[in-house]
């Protein structure tokens, strides 16, 4: 068969126009870390971000994109470099800072928050040394009380792969243990994979979530079809043998395999029930320590009217209500509002709780009447998107104190700018090392009215 080419597109031209081979650079100096924990290299070719490289090092790298490069070798290493503890670290996408010692990780994260607050909110934290409180930290290993595992079943090989996604990839890295996962959950990985591989439902398995509770570990299976009787029997046997509770999630809700009470997690001096699928803070120790710090900063007492936004199932709410303060809790997920109300009832405290989309103007909210206040203290703990609408409403309300807890310092800095423009100043800041071995950052900030 004849093959036709457009002018200038013959085989020789195609060969000449092939993409050039990525450039390999030797003996490059690493001058810093970016906000994602990647080494920064500046050269005549521009800035490159190199995962795995540390400031002060001399490295060899190969360009992988316009701004990113792959580390090939470390010619001169940083004194802050350490040997990663996890055998899967180079492939797994769960951690990205195991090669940096924990003290340096914390210093870097605090510097990131400092830079972003100065850049976007004009807050010069370095000029006010007393603003930064000592980092709130716990165990840097085996601290995770929840994890979501990706699952893939190869029908031709009849093989189940269970693990974490590789870096910047949909590829699943099968793991036998995780250095950051709670020991009780680690011990389940191998037997759970073996059990699931034998079930008829395995081709319909989406992901698997593991949770450490105050009693038995909990396994949640995401399924795209109903649970058959034979599979149910095998899961019951697994549950009894390994002393673990099992739930499955379909398109509508999560179902516990047994008929026992809801699982519990610990907050400050209390245990709260939760539904599988509800949000839980990752680090078991720091989840409680954060509540203790919030109580210390806001000093809730009888006579205080406290507004809590993004309240979840009551992690901060119940301890604050037990202080005697009048707490109004707003959450965007209806099931978590119901669970918060139930937890308040179990602990014998009065809490006003309502469901509302806090990203919309509060005058349009179903909880508009409750949100009118007045409130003298506010606590908010939003997701990564931050709380742009909420802080605008708070500036209008002018409570005396606002405790903003953030897992995304960029959106915190954006919202802090709104608070500063509205007459607030930053009084306290504290890094919470909620995610050791990763670049992810948690921070508590206390704002007070001028």
From TrEMBL:
Q: Tell me one Pfam family matched here.
A: tRNA_U5-meth_tr
Q: What Gene3D superfamilies does this protein map onto?
A: 2.40.50.1070, Nucleic acid-binding proteins, Vaccinia Virus protein VP39
What does the entry list as the binding residues for S-adenosyl-L-methionine? 281, 310, 331, 381
Q: Where is this region: Disordered?
A: 1-21
The organism sits in which domain of life? Bacteria
What are the record keywords, sorted? 4Fe-4S, Iron, Iron-sulfur, Metal-binding, Methyltransferase, S-adenosyl-L-methionine, Transferase
Instruction: Tell me which residues this entry annotates as catalytic.
Output: 407
- What family does the database annotate? Belongs to the class I-like SAM-binding methyltransferase superfamily. RNA M5U methyltransferase family.
Protein name, please? 23S rRNA (Uracil(1939)-C(5))-methyltransferase RlmD
């Amino acid at each position: 068969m004849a093959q036709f080419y457009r002018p200038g597109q013959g085989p020789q031209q195609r060969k000449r126009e092939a993409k050039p081979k990525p450039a390999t650079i030797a003996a490059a100096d690493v001058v810093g870390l970016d906000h994602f924990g990647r080494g920064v290299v500046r050269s005549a070719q521009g800035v490159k971000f190199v995962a795995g490289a540390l400031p002060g090092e001399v490295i060899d790298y190969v360009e992988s994109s316009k701004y990113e490069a792959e580390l090939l070798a470390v010619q001169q290493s940083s004194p802050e470099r350490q040997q990663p503890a996890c055998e899967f670290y180079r492939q797994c996408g769960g951690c990205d800072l195991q090669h940096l010692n924990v003290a340096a990780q914390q210093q870097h994260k605090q510097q990131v928050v400092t830079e972003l607050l100065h850049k976007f909110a004009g807050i010069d934290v370095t000029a006010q040394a007393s603003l930064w409180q000592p980092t709130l930290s716990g165990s840097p290993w085996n601290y995770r009380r929840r994890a979501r595992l990706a699952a893939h079943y190869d029908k031709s090989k009849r093989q189940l792969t269970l693990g974490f996604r590789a870096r910047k990839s949909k590829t699943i890295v099968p793991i036998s243990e995780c250095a950051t996962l709670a020991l009780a959950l680690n011990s389940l990985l191998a037997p759970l994979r073996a059990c699931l591989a034998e079930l008829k439902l395995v081709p319909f398995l989406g992901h698997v979530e593991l949770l450490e509770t105050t009693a038995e570990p909990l396994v949640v299976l995401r399924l795209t079809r109903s649970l058959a009787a034979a599979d149910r029997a095998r899961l019951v046997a697994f549950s009894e043998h390994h002393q673990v509770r099992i739930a499955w999630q379909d398109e509508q809700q999560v179902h516990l395999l047994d008929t026992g009470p809801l699982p519990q997690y610990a907050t400050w001096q209390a245990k709260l029930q939760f539904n599988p699928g509800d949000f839980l803070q990752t680090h078991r120790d720091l989840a409680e320590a954060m509540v203790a710090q919030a109580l210390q900063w806001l000093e809730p007492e009888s006579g205080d009217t406290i507004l809590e936004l993004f309240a979840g199932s009551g992690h901060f709410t119940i301890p604050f209500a037990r202080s005697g303060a009048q707490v109004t809790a707003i959450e965007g997920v209806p099931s978590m509002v119901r669970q918060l109300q139930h937890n308040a009832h179990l602990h014998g405290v009065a809490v006003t709780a309502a469901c509302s989309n806090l990203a919309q103007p509060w005058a349009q909210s179903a909880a508009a009447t409750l949100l009118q206040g007045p409130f003298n203290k506010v606590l908010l703990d939003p997701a990564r998107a931050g709380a742009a609408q909420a802080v605008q409403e708070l500036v209008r309300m002018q409570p005396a104190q606002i405790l903003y807890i953030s897992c995304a310092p960029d959106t915190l800095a954006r919202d802090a700018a709104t608070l500063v423009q509205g007459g607030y100043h930053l009084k306290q800041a504290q890094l919470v090392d909620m995610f050791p071995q990763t670049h992810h950052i948690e921070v508590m900030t206390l704002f007070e009215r001028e």
